[in-house]
# Entry
Amino acid sequence: MSLNAESTAFRSALEVIRAVEPRVADAIGAELADQRESLKLIASENYASPATLLAMGNWFSDKYAEGTVGRRFYAGCQNVDTVEALAAEHARELFGAAHAYVQPHSGIDANLVAFWAILADRVESPALKKAQVRQVNELTEADWFALRRELGNQRMLGMSLDAGGHLTHGFRPNISGKMFDQRSYGTDPATGLIDYDKVAEAAREFKPLILVAGYSAYPRKVNFRIMREIADSVGATFMVDMAHFAGLVAGKVFTGDFDPVPHAHIVTTTTHKSLRGPRGGMVLCGPELADQVDRGCPMVLGGPLPHVMAAKAVALAEARRPDFADYAQRIVDNAQALAEGLTGRGAKLVTGGTDNHLVLIDVTGYGLTGRQAEQALLDSGIVTNRNAVPQDPNGAWYTSGIRIGTPALTSRGLGTAEMDATAELIHTVLTQTTSGESKAKYVLDPALADKVSKQASELLTGFPLYPGVDLG
Ligand code: DSN
# Structure
């Protein structure tokens, strides 16, 4: 029997790799097997298409291409220009953005590019203006000192980590929390929701240069129109990091006030979460910030990864197809079914539910820390990650929450009925786990963990992962 194209491609690739370092080929094969068997509920993970994966494994990896399309620091970039221009075009069309910069290697990189662009655009620095117009030789030591002083210590207001914000939005251990004079806004302790009046009050008091919206563990929509009004009221640049929900924006589930692109001055994202592309980042903006954003490499980034930009072009083309909107809607339907299945069984959820792709369980209701719950679920074949909840009594390491998300299982085709069954498995494990003698230790009957693992595998049997890929 002849093999299909996907199986042939991946088998051949592994055969070539095996001839050099068989352990790498084995690990790649084992990774597919593990992913096929586990109930993957990590909210930030997904499964890229075979076309996206294959676009990354080729000669583009060998090319340096610092600069931008048509304006490179290296010769021979014509084919890189083709894929970078395609990826940017698809991104602009998909999100309705005037400008797209597809070189960032990750979400953190994308945010650094955005921070630089905003600083360069907004900070009044005669020395910087000279530096920008390539008169760097005319700058004295005193100019450079002034430039550093003027760029430093600018103010950023972002969502706090324990309220669901991201560490690059001013969390102290991250560079954003060190390079900016930062303050954060949280959520209402009673509802768990963003209180826009409180954000406005904080903005009025603090007068940030940058107001950041976006999250990695907030299970609700954000009204970007209101956030922009707040930013405008204090003269702040409004930046949205849509890494988690970019797929929901692309699939037109988040529209109007909930689509960040028409409201923000600058939008950053990763491409590998709900957007289902390769591991990487991207920046979208209007014409006024475009020049600064395009300086991302070599200002902040190392040489672009042309093989990943090729894969971004493929994945963004996929996201422009009509069936991606259906996928995005199913992500949210599944998250809501999962939330209902959990609350119906007595789980306590931050904000009581979800209107995006993720659910945050407060596991203190089960008498557990996030760390204990994460490991007990992993023992039972359910892959999640622990996450802080608002005002978390256990801090950012042990935490009191479990974050779960549906982009990956939705890519496999699981639907709302399977989400209810998933809620039952999660609830069973968490009710049967007891806290041990430390915040990391727990007690769970291995026979029960084994039984749930089998049930989790059974749940997946009708939904093969990469059905077209047979590694033999
Ligand atoms: N690490 C990502 C997440 O899991 O949300 C964010 O950077």
Notes: The chain is about 45% helix and 10% strand.
